[in-house]
Amino acid sequence: MAQSLTIKIKLLPTKKETELLKSSSLRYIETVNFLVSEMVAEQKITKKTSKDVAVSLNSAVKNQAIRDAKSVFKRAKKTKFQIVPVLKKPVIIWNNQNFTVTPTSICMPFVIDGRSKKLSMKALIEQRDLNLLAIATKIGTLRITCKGNKWIAQIALEVPTELTPSTKVMGVDLGIKVPAVCVTDEHEVKFVGNGRMNKYVRRYHNARRKKLGKAKKQNAIKKSRDKEQRWMKDQDHKISREIIDFAMKHNVGVIRLEQLSGIRQQTRKSRKNNHSLSNWSFYRLAQYIKYKANVAGIKVENVNPAYTSQRCPQCGHHNHALDRRYTCSNCGAREHRDLVGAWNIIFAPVIDGNSQSA
Length: 358
Fold this sequence. Notes:
- The protein is α+β, with helices and mostly antiparallel strands.
- It has two domains: 2-160, no CATH class; 169-196 and 230-351, YqgF/RNase H-like domain (Nucleotidyltransferase, domain 5, 2-Layer Sandwich).
- The chain is 41% helix and 25% strand.
- The strands form three sheets. The protein has a seven-stranded antiparallel β-sheet. Strands 10-9-8-11-12-15 form a six-stranded mixed β-sheet, sandwiched between helices.
- α1 (15-42) packs across α2 and α5 (218-249) packs across α8.
- The longest helix is centred in the middle third of the chain and has 32 residues, at 218-249.
- The model is unreliable at 274-278 and 353-358 (pLDDT under 50).
- GO terms for molecular function: DNA binding.
- This is Transposase.
- One of its GO terms (biological process) is DNA recombination.
- Residues 282-345 form the Cas12f1-like TNB domain.
- Keywords: DNA recombination, DNA-binding, Transposition.
């Protein structure tokens, strides 16, 4: 079995290389849009080849532009040409035979002074991405796009997903004050994320939108909401990556999570936590964990969340924790509340993995 995924790499182009990326990517989308307009006018797919496209792009890039134009035309045809997509954001694409990746750069061809030349562009490539490239069963296209003032390379991959033979289990407790607590059945522990910072950022955006609402600045409110969502999504990616890295470091074969159905009802709310809890996507974080675990060959199981934060891991007696400290009234055991939850998740009964949105 293979898992499809896309790795993202930050490019570090020089000034000249930046100008080359700008001109080439704009030329690319102009070519795609022109080819689409021709097809729409004739109501059929073009039979043009790279020789028929007179622009300063490599033949492989021209062929990719033709393929993209055909794809856009087919989408337009489904709407009976009432909606014809137009590319606006600069982008340029190479197929897998026209680029190479090294530990510090990406090499791809450009047309420079009328001639095709391969250019090696510096890039920040993380070790895990190099590992994925090394084990990939198939490497797809290289897509370079501009986000703000940063140039990002996206490479499509297929990697094997055979599950590791390890039977070591790790429980993960998700929450607000501590985004994630991991503990293995051999007592290795990791606290992931900064709940206080997360809550501060979300409350800041919420307070700012209230002020903007009074001023009736709807566009600014939308931008603030989008910015908050992007930040939260980025945090979920970072948290899930730390969890999987920790699991791989300790040779974990199974990760267990609480079933997400009803998690908001299970979590105690306070006035300050209401906005944080309502806006935090536990489901999305769990999906990121499952996705990254699948790529790493780690199995993910859902467990029954009943009493995981109340049951004493030493004697099994049920207690209510006071704030973050759990103290057993029966045996006197003392521990961090979320650590108790993660430990109990390891031994909780496994249930159907089709969890509901939180």
